[in-house]
Amino acid sequence: MNFRRCLTCFLPAAALAAAAVLLSGCGAQVQDTPAAAAAGYPVTVTNCGVEKTFDAPPERVVVNDINMTEMMFALGLEDRMAGYILSDAKVDNSAVSPWNDEFAATPRLGTKINKELVQGADADLVFAGWNYGFTDTSGVTPQSLENVGIASYVLTESCRQGESSARGIMDPIEALYTDITNLGRIFGVEDRARDLVDGYKQTIADAQATIPADEPAPRVFLYDGGTDQPLTVGANAAANDVITRAGGVNIFGELDDSWTSVSFAAAADRDPEVILINDYGNTTVDAKEEFLRNHPLMSTTTAVREGNFYALTYPQLTEGPQNPQAIADFAAYLGSLDAS
């Protein structure tokens, strides 16, 4: 009699698992038993129009960029992170972040995302966005990660519009609510996510209650940087909602994109009354302001002539948990102009 073939014939059902281990050691083929889903799982969320299912909360998340890292911290998920990736240009922003202690206690894995870094961190999920880490040219995309068994979550502000390279598929603040809610489900912290969203809505409502109803909305130009062509925002960037929900109007708000380049001629032609500067990087706010004051076209605008400059940091102007307070702060600034 062939012992390997007939061993299980003489075993009770309760001992079959032990027999499987013995047979596998002898070279037999034993089918793996699927792992049971964690309690409350699986959960399925829709991200950039794609359904994604999780059988358990991810445990080693690599997060790219400061705004998404702050979303994880706001949800209390630092213990689920393998670490974050942050360029040197944004380190100063993390030092003044409301979550600066969490930044200090969490590993910074590098300055630029790549597959080797992600795999070296033994990541089971990468949280990034298109042009916030995911790019076709770098080879780091949700599909390339899936090919090596790593899940991804894409920042909703950055979702691509079908086959187009333009980004943004919903109102930017709704994108924040969507991501916080989805992450809450993915990690099993739905109550925390719900409380955050409710708080964000209240902060914005309180700010909007202070906006004069009978005053025209001031024209605002968001200046990120650039000396040949300025980088600014269209309708689908979080900064657009910071401007509009604070009582202003984005002079490039008709552009169906998020962060995008325009021309100084176009910006000057629209005569902004306020210039909102994105504060990050090696170029200081003062240097950006000085450049615009001396620019032959921008120097003629109402904003420059009247000295109406205001600065917010990069994580306040990109989708993340600082957006609601940024709306409140900018609303207060615009209100001070009305009062003067």
Automatic annotation (TrEMBL):
<comment type="similarity">
    <text>Belongs to the bacterial solute-binding protein 8 family.</text>
</comment>
<keyword id="KW-0732">Signal</keyword>
<protein>
    <submittedName>
        <fullName>ABC transporter substrate-binding protein</fullName>
    </submittedName>
</protein>
<feature type="domain" description="Fe/B12 periplasmic-binding">
    <location>
        <begin position="60"/>
        <end position="340"/>
    </location>
</feature>
<dbReference type="InterPro" id="IPR050902">
    <property type="entry name" value="ABC_Transporter_SBP"/>
</dbReference>
<dbReference type="Pfam" id="PF01497">
    <property type="entry name" value="Peripla_BP_2"/>
</dbReference>
<dbReference type="InterPro" id="IPR002491">
    <property type="entry name" value="ABC_transptr_periplasmic_BD"/>
</dbReference>
<feature type="signal peptide">
    <location>
        <begin position="1"/>
        <end position="30"/>
    </location>
</feature>
